[in-house]
Specification:
Elements (H helix, E strand, L loop, with lengths): L7 H33 L8 E6 L8 E11 L2 E13 L5 E4 L11 E2 L9 E3 L4 E3 L20 E4 L2 E4 L9
Antiparallel strand pairs: 1-9, 2-3, 3-4, 5-6, 6-7, 8-9
Bound molecules: FE2/S2 (inorganic) cluster.
GO molecular function: 2 iron, 2 sulfur cluster binding; metal ion binding; monooxygenase activity; oxidoreductase activity, acting on paired donors, with incorporation or reduction of molecular oxygen
Subunit structure: The main subunits of the menaquinol:cytochrome c complex are a Rieske-type iron-sulfur protein (QcrA), a cytochrome b (QcrB) and a cytochrome c (QcrC).
Protein name: Menaquinol:cytochrome c reductase iron-sulfur subunit
C-alpha cells in the first residue's frame, strides 16, 4: 500500500490556486452583480401612471394632461413628465393621444392652426391630424398619433405607455 506524498511544490500549487481563485471570485462577484442588477430588478414598464385628471371632468374638447413618473434606465432613475391630449368621443369613450408628431417628433397642439381649426397641428413642418389623431393626407406625418392605453383608478385617469394606433 503506497501512500501518496504531496510534494512541497504541489502543496504550494494547490494553495496558491485555491487562494487565487478565492480572491478572483471575491473581485468578480460584485462586478457580475453590478452588471446584471438591472435585469434582476422588477421592471415597471407597462405600468399605468395615475394622472390628476378626473375621468368625470373629461369632455369632448381635447385637453392637455401632463403626468410625471419615475423612469429607471439601468442604474439611473429620473423623473419624466409626459403629456397626453385627452377627450371623450361621441360614444363617451376616453381617447388619450400622444402629442409626439409622427413626422420628426415635434409636439402637436390642439386647435392652434387658424387655417385648420379643430385639428392637431404640428408647427415644425405644418403636420395636421384630425381630432381622433389620424394624419391628414398631404401633410408630412405618415402615420396617426400614438394612443395611450388607459384605465380608471379611483375616478382618475391612469395612462399606460403610448403605442401606435391599431388599425380597424
Ligand atoms: S415634425 Fe411634425 S410635421 Fe414635421
Amino acid at each position: 500500500m503506497s501512500k501518496q506524498r504531496v510534494t512541497r511544490r504541489q502543496f504550494l500549487n494547490y494553495t496558491l490556486t485555491g487562494v487565487g481563485g478565492f480572491m478572483a471570485a471575491g473581485m468578480l462577484m460584485p462586478m457580475v452583480r453590478f452588471a446584471v442588477d438591472p435585469v434582476l430588478q422588477h421592471n415597471a414598464a407597462g405600468d399605468y401612471v395615475v394622472t390628476d385628471k378626473k375621468i368625470s371632468e373629461i369632455t369632448a374638447e381635447p385637453v392637455r394632461v401632463d403626468f410625471t413618473f419615475e423612469q429607471k434606465d439601468a442604474w439611473y432613475t429620473s423623473e419624466v413628465t409626459n403629456t397626453a391630449w385627452v377627450y371623450k368621443d361621441e360614444n363617451g369613450e376616453v381617447i388619450a393621444l400622444s402629442p409626439i408628431c409622427k413626422h420628426l417628433g415635434c409636439t402637436v397642439d390642439w386647435n392652434k392652426d387658424k387655417a385648420n381649426p379643430e385639428h392637431f397641428y404640428c408647427p415644425c413642418h405644418g403636420g395636421l391630424y384630425t381630432k381622433d389623431g389620424t394624419n391628414v393626407p398631404g401633410t408630412p406625418p405618415a402615420a396617426p398619433l400614438d394612443v395611450y392605453p388607459f384605465k380608471e383608478v379611483d375616478g382618475y385617469l391612469a395612462l399606460g405607455k403610448a403605442e401606435p394606433r391599431k388599425e380597424a
